[in-house]
Amino acid sequence: MNTMNKSSSCEEGEEDVKDFLDILLDVSKDKDSEIELTRNHIKSLILVTELFNNPRVLKKAQKEVDRVSGNQRLVCEEDSPNLPYIHAIIKETLRLHPPIPLLIRKGLRDCIVGGYKIPKGSMGCINIWAMGREPTLWENPIEFRPERFLEGEGNTLDVKGNHFELLPFGAGKRGCLGMNLALRELLAIIGALVQCFDWKMFDSEGKLLSYGTPIDMDEQPGLTVPRAHDLICVP
Protein backbone atom coordinates (compact mmCIF):
# COMPACT_ATOMS: atom_id res chain seq x y z
CA MET A 1 0.00 0.00 0.00
CA ASN A 2 1.42 3.33 -0.96
CA THR A 3 0.72 6.82 0.28
CA MET A 4 1.79 10.00 -1.42
CA ASN A 5 3.58 11.32 1.68
CA LYS A 6 7.06 12.74 1.22
CA SER A 7 9.64 13.53 3.87
CA SER A 8 12.60 15.85 3.59
CA SER A 9 15.99 14.17 3.44
CA CYS A 10 19.05 15.24 5.43
CA GLU A 11 20.41 17.10 2.44
CA GLU A 12 18.59 20.34 1.78
CA GLY A 13 16.63 20.44 -1.44
CA GLU A 14 16.17 16.68 -1.75
CA GLU A 15 13.07 14.65 -1.03
CA ASP A 16 12.77 11.02 -0.01
CA VAL A 17 9.48 9.41 -1.06
CA LYS A 18 8.19 6.99 1.58
CA ASP A 19 5.57 4.38 0.87
CA PHE A 20 3.05 3.10 3.39
CA LEU A 21 5.28 0.23 4.49
CA ASP A 22 8.19 2.61 5.14
CA ILE A 23 5.97 4.76 7.33
CA LEU A 24 4.67 1.75 9.28
CA LEU A 25 8.22 0.53 9.88
CA ASP A 26 9.24 4.00 11.09
CA VAL A 27 6.36 4.01 13.57
CA SER A 28 7.26 0.54 14.80
CA LYS A 29 10.81 1.76 15.60
CA ASP A 30 9.66 4.96 17.33
CA LYS A 31 9.97 4.36 21.07
CA ASP A 32 8.08 7.60 21.80
CA SER A 33 5.03 6.60 19.74
CA GLU A 34 1.69 6.61 21.57
CA ILE A 35 0.89 3.18 20.14
CA GLU A 36 3.01 0.04 19.88
CA LEU A 37 3.12 -1.15 16.27
CA THR A 38 4.72 -4.57 15.77
CA ARG A 39 5.69 -6.44 12.62
CA ASN A 40 2.60 -8.62 13.13
CA HIS A 41 0.44 -5.48 12.92
CA ILE A 42 2.21 -4.51 9.70
CA LYS A 43 1.72 -7.97 8.19
CA SER A 44 -1.98 -7.86 8.99
CA LEU A 45 -2.36 -4.53 7.18
CA ILE A 46 -0.79 -6.06 4.09
CA LEU A 47 -2.93 -9.20 4.30
CA VAL A 48 -6.22 -7.32 3.87
CA THR A 49 -5.66 -6.99 0.12
CA GLU A 50 -7.95 -9.96 -0.52
CA LEU A 51 -10.71 -8.22 1.42
CA PHE A 52 -10.40 -5.14 -0.79
CA ASN A 53 -10.55 -7.40 -3.83
CA ASN A 54 -13.77 -9.06 -2.66
CA PRO A 55 -16.41 -6.46 -1.70
CA ARG A 56 -18.94 -9.17 -0.82
CA VAL A 57 -16.58 -10.65 1.75
CA LEU A 58 -15.67 -7.21 3.13
CA LYS A 59 -19.32 -6.24 3.65
CA LYS A 60 -20.06 -9.57 5.33
CA ALA A 61 -17.07 -9.08 7.66
CA GLN A 62 -18.24 -5.56 8.52
CA LYS A 63 -21.70 -6.86 9.44
CA GLU A 64 -20.22 -9.50 11.73
CA VAL A 65 -17.97 -6.98 13.50
CA ASP A 66 -20.85 -4.49 13.89
CA ARG A 67 -23.05 -7.20 15.34
CA VAL A 68 -20.44 -8.20 17.92
CA SER A 69 -19.40 -4.67 18.89
CA GLY A 70 -22.86 -3.15 18.69
CA ASN A 71 -21.24 -0.13 17.01
CA GLN A 72 -20.33 1.04 20.51
CA ARG A 73 -16.64 0.09 20.74
CA LEU A 74 -13.68 -1.26 18.84
CA VAL A 75 -13.52 -4.99 18.28
CA CYS A 76 -10.84 -6.65 20.44
CA GLU A 77 -9.13 -9.99 21.08
CA GLU A 78 -11.79 -10.99 23.62
CA ASP A 79 -14.35 -11.00 20.78
CA SER A 80 -12.50 -13.84 19.04
CA PRO A 81 -15.04 -16.64 19.79
CA ASN A 82 -17.83 -14.52 18.28
CA LEU A 83 -16.04 -13.71 15.00
CA PRO A 84 -16.07 -16.97 13.01
CA TYR A 85 -16.17 -15.20 9.65
CA ILE A 86 -13.08 -13.11 10.46
CA HIS A 87 -11.31 -16.34 11.45
CA ALA A 88 -12.36 -17.87 8.13
CA ILE A 89 -11.03 -14.83 6.24
CA ILE A 90 -7.65 -15.23 7.95
CA LYS A 91 -7.50 -18.95 7.09
CA GLU A 92 -8.49 -18.34 3.48
CA THR A 93 -5.88 -15.58 3.12
CA LEU A 94 -3.16 -17.80 4.57
CA ARG A 95 -4.23 -20.64 2.26
CA LEU A 96 -3.71 -18.51 -0.84
CA HIS A 97 -0.85 -16.37 0.50
CA PRO A 98 1.25 -18.29 3.03
CA PRO A 99 4.01 -16.22 4.69
CA ILE A 100 6.63 -18.45 3.05
CA PRO A 101 6.11 -20.66 -0.03
CA LEU A 102 8.30 -23.60 1.00
CA LEU A 103 8.95 -25.66 4.13
CA ILE A 104 12.42 -27.22 4.16
CA ARG A 105 13.25 -30.23 6.33
CA LYS A 106 16.21 -32.60 6.64
CA GLY A 107 15.56 -36.32 7.00
CA LEU A 108 16.87 -37.81 10.26
CA ARG A 109 16.58 -41.41 9.02
CA ASP A 110 15.81 -43.40 5.88
CA CYS A 111 12.11 -43.40 5.04
CA ILE A 112 9.69 -44.15 2.22
CA VAL A 113 7.28 -41.45 1.00
CA GLY A 114 4.80 -42.22 -1.75
CA GLY A 115 6.75 -45.33 -2.73
CA TYR A 116 10.05 -43.43 -3.01
CA LYS A 117 12.99 -44.13 -0.70
CA ILE A 118 14.29 -40.93 0.88
CA PRO A 119 17.81 -41.44 2.25
CA LYS A 120 18.84 -40.09 5.64
CA GLY A 121 20.23 -36.55 5.36
CA SER A 122 18.12 -35.63 2.31
CA MET A 123 16.67 -32.13 2.19
CA GLY A 124 12.95 -32.08 1.47
CA CYS A 125 11.07 -29.02 0.18
CA ILE A 126 7.32 -28.94 0.81
CA ASN A 127 5.54 -26.49 -1.49
CA ILE A 128 2.79 -25.15 0.78
CA TRP A 129 2.01 -22.37 -1.75
CA ALA A 130 1.06 -25.03 -4.34
CA MET A 131 -0.82 -27.11 -1.76
CA GLY A 132 -3.10 -24.16 -1.12
CA ARG A 133 -4.00 -24.15 -4.82
CA GLU A 134 -4.26 -27.91 -5.34
CA PRO A 135 -7.65 -28.75 -6.96
CA THR A 136 -7.69 -32.25 -5.46
CA LEU A 137 -7.66 -30.64 -2.00
CA TRP A 138 -9.70 -27.49 -2.57
CA GLU A 139 -12.82 -26.83 -4.61
CA ASN A 140 -12.27 -23.86 -6.96
CA PRO A 141 -8.86 -23.29 -5.32
CA ILE A 142 -8.14 -19.86 -6.87
CA GLU A 143 -11.44 -18.40 -5.64
CA PHE A 144 -11.23 -16.38 -2.41
CA ARG A 145 -14.13 -17.85 -0.45
CA PRO A 146 -13.83 -17.83 3.37
CA GLU A 147 -17.08 -19.77 3.63
CA ARG A 148 -15.16 -22.95 2.75
CA PHE A 149 -13.89 -22.90 6.37
CA LEU A 150 -17.40 -22.68 7.79
CA GLU A 151 -18.90 -25.57 5.83
CA GLY A 152 -18.61 -29.35 6.32
CA GLU A 153 -15.11 -30.65 7.02
CA GLY A 154 -13.65 -27.19 6.39
CA ASN A 155 -15.08 -26.09 9.72
CA THR A 156 -12.60 -28.36 11.53
CA LEU A 157 -9.46 -27.23 9.64
CA ASP A 158 -6.95 -25.07 11.47
CA VAL A 159 -3.62 -23.45 10.57
CA LYS A 160 -1.66 -24.87 13.52
CA GLY A 161 -0.02 -27.78 11.71
CA ASN A 162 -2.70 -30.39 12.41
CA HIS A 163 -3.92 -30.58 8.81
CA PHE A 164 -1.35 -31.13 6.09
CA GLU A 165 -3.36 -29.35 3.40
CA LEU A 166 -3.02 -26.06 5.32
CA LEU A 167 0.43 -25.35 6.79
CA PRO A 168 1.10 -21.58 6.60
CA PHE A 169 3.04 -21.67 9.90
CA GLY A 170 4.74 -25.02 9.37
CA ALA A 171 4.19 -27.96 11.70
CA GLY A 172 5.76 -29.91 14.53
CA LYS A 173 8.72 -28.76 16.60
CA ARG A 174 9.88 -26.45 13.79
CA GLY A 175 6.54 -24.65 13.51
CA CYS A 176 6.41 -20.87 13.88
CA LEU A 177 6.81 -19.86 17.53
CA GLY A 178 4.88 -16.63 16.97
CA MET A 179 1.81 -18.32 15.47
CA ASN A 180 -0.57 -17.86 18.41
CA LEU A 181 0.36 -14.21 18.91
CA ALA A 182 0.07 -13.52 15.18
CA LEU A 183 -3.40 -15.06 14.96
CA ARG A 184 -4.68 -13.02 17.93
CA GLU A 185 -3.31 -9.78 16.55
CA LEU A 186 -4.49 -10.49 13.01
CA LEU A 187 -8.05 -10.89 14.22
CA ALA A 188 -8.02 -7.65 16.21
CA ILE A 189 -6.31 -5.57 13.54
CA ILE A 190 -8.33 -6.85 10.58
CA GLY A 191 -11.51 -6.51 12.62
CA ALA A 192 -10.66 -2.88 13.39
CA LEU A 193 -9.76 -2.10 9.78
CA VAL A 194 -13.07 -3.36 8.41
CA GLN A 195 -15.02 -1.82 11.31
CA CYS A 196 -13.59 1.69 11.15
CA PHE A 197 -13.05 2.35 7.44
CA ASP A 198 -14.45 2.05 3.98
CA TRP A 199 -11.77 1.86 1.31
CA LYS A 200 -11.07 3.30 -2.14
CA MET A 201 -8.66 1.41 -4.41
CA PHE A 202 -6.32 2.81 -7.06
CA ASP A 203 -4.26 1.14 -9.78
CA SER A 204 -0.45 1.45 -10.05
CA GLU A 205 -0.87 4.68 -12.02
CA GLY A 206 -3.06 6.30 -9.37
CA LYS A 207 -6.38 5.84 -11.23
CA LEU A 208 -9.41 5.25 -9.00
CA LEU A 209 -10.83 1.75 -9.46
CA SER A 210 -14.58 1.39 -9.65
CA TYR A 211 -16.33 -0.70 -7.01
CA GLY A 212 -15.76 -4.41 -7.59
CA THR A 213 -12.93 -3.99 -10.14
CA PRO A 214 -10.45 -6.88 -9.61
CA ILE A 215 -7.14 -5.94 -8.00
CA ASP A 216 -3.92 -7.43 -9.40
CA MET A 217 -2.92 -10.25 -7.01
CA ASP A 218 0.29 -11.35 -8.78
CA GLU A 219 3.17 -12.25 -6.46
CA GLN A 220 6.95 -12.18 -6.76
CA PRO A 221 9.13 -15.26 -6.30
CA GLY A 222 11.44 -15.34 -3.31
CA LEU A 223 11.92 -16.55 0.25
CA THR A 224 8.59 -14.88 1.04
CA VAL A 225 5.81 -14.15 -1.47
CA PRO A 226 5.47 -10.35 -1.67
CA ARG A 227 3.09 -8.57 -4.02
CA ALA A 228 4.40 -8.00 -7.55
CA HIS A 229 2.66 -4.60 -7.70
CA ASP A 230 1.93 -2.10 -4.95
CA LEU A 231 -1.55 -1.82 -3.53
CA ILE A 232 -2.67 1.82 -3.34
CA CYS A 233 -5.66 2.46 -1.13
CA VAL A 234 -7.27 5.31 0.80
CA PRO A 235 -9.33 4.75 3.96
TrEMBL record:
Q: Mind telling me what this protein is named?
A: Cytochrome P450
Entries under Pfam families matching the protein = p450
The similarity comment for this entry is: Belongs to the cytochrome P450 family.
InterPro entries for the chain: Cyt_P450, Cyt_P450_CS, Cyt_P450_E_grp-I, Cyt_P450_sf
**Origin, by domain of life?**
Eukaryota
PROSITE patterns membership: CYTOCHROME_P450
What keywords were assigned to this record? Answer: Heme, Iron, Metal-binding, Monooxygenase, Oxidoreductase
